[in-house]
């Protein structure tokens, strides 16, 4: 695990993806989410999105994460809110579910930190025919110098930094028949701070990890025009 991901786990950040929970809510407004649906929050973190799905739509929600510290915080959230969310420890690269188990898979700033090809193939496998993937993912805009790209890969622990076209191609090759990007509603930028930056600090938090956050902010500021994100929607064929 990279120091950045270790920081997220120890700091217990509920909405690490760009836009946080307000962006998730905005995306879901245009989706037909029904209480009969089975939804997978792949890389659930502290369970912020999974809790919202369960509370708002009363559907069958499964929260999966590889980091046990995150799952412990998610479990406390679900218990506190008395939500029947299924908690599963596992990797997006080898999902511990049967084929065609879910109607919807959410991946919020998760897949880019994994073996992208494997994770996307797994999402397609566990989705039912006609099922959908919603992914908010780090996306390269323009060119990086060799040094810039190596810095980003090393800091975030990622193997590849994909462009929008490369993400779409990866999803098509993984078995999705239709892929599109969704425009962001700018109103989410004015959402309450606590919904975007929720923290659940671990008792054994090491102070030096604050330096990781500062380095993350430095990278974002320096590359803000070229290291962005996209909201992807991929559909699985009904066949």
Secondary-structure blueprint of this entry?
Elements lengths: L2 H9 L8 H10 L8 E5 L5 H10 L2 E6 L2 H13 L5 E4 L12 E7 L7 H11 E14 L5 H11 L7 H11 L1 E7 L10 H4 L12 H14 L4 E10 L3
Parallel strand pairs: 1-2, 1-4, 2-3, 4-5
Antiparallel strand pairs: 5-7, 6-7
Helix pairs in contact: 1-9, 5-7
Task: Pick out its properties.
methyltransferase, transferase, Methyltransf_11, Rossmann fold, Class I SAM-dependent methyltransferase
Characterise this structure.
Helix 5 links the parallel strand 4 (102-108) and strand 5 (127-140). 39% of the residues lie in helices and 22% in strands. The chain has one domain: Rossmann fold (3-Layer(aba) Sandwich), CATH 3.40.50.150. It has a seven-stranded mixed sheet with strand order 3-2-1-4-5-7-6. It contains nine helices and seven strands, in the order H-H-E-H-E-H-E-E-H-E-H-H-E-H-H-E. The model is unreliable at 185-196 (pLDDT under 50). With 239 residues, it is α/β, with parallel strands linked by helices. The chain starts with a helix and ends with a strand. Helix 1 (3-11) crosses helix 9 (209-222).
Tally of distinct domains = 1
Number of helices: 9
Cα radius of gyration in angstroms: 17 Å
Strand order of the largest sheet: 3-2-1-4-5-7-6
Structural class: alpha/beta
Taken in chain order, the helices and strands follow as HHEHEHEEHEHHEHHE
Query: Which class in CATH terms?
Result: Alpha Beta
Helix fraction bin: 25-40%
User: What best-fitting shape do the alpha-carbon axes yield?
Assistant: globular
| Averaged pLDDT | 85
CATH topology type = Rossmann fold
Question: Which percent band covers the strand fraction?
Answer: 15-25%
Spatial gap, N to C terminus? 38 Å
CATH architecture assignment: 3-Layer(aba) Sandwich
CATH superfamily: Vaccinia Virus protein VP39
Number of strands: 7
Low-confidence runs: 185-196
Keywords: Methyltransferase, S-adenosyl-L-methionine, Transferase
GO molecular function, one term: S-adenosylmethionine-dependent methyltransferase activity
Domain Methyltransferase type: 40-134
Pfam families: Methyltransf_11 (PF08241)
């Amino acid at each position: 695990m990279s120091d950045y991901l270790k920081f997220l786990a120890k700091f217990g950040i509920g909405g690490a993806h760009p836009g946080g929970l307000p962006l998730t809510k905005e995306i879901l407004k245009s989706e037909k989410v029904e209480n009969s649906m089975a939804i997978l929050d792949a890389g659930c973190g502290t369970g912020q999105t999974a809790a919202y799905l369960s509370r708002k739509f009363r559907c069958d929600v499964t929260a999966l994460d590889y980091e046990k510290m995150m799952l412990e915080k998610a479990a406390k959230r679900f218990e506190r809110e008395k939500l029947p969310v299924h908690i599963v420890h596992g990797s997006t690269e080898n999902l511990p579910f049967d084929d065609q188990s879910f109607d919807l898979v959410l991946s919020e700033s998760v897949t880019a930190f994994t073996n992208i090809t494997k994770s996307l193939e797994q999402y397609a496998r566990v989705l039912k025919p006609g099922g959908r993937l919603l992914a908010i993912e780090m996306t390269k805009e323009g060119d990086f110098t060799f040094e810039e790209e190596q810095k980003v890969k090393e800091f975030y622990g990622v193997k590849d930094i994909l462009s929008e076209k490369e993400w779409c191609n990866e999803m098509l090759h993984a078995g999705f028949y239709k892929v599109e990007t969704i425009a962001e509603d700018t109103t989410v930028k004015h959402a309450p701070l606590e919904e975007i930056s929720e923290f659940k600090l671990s008792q054994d938090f090491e102070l030096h990890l604050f330096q990781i956050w500062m380095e993350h902010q430095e990278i974002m500021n320096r590359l803000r025009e070229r290291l962005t994100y996209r909201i992807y929607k991929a559909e699985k064929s009904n066949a």
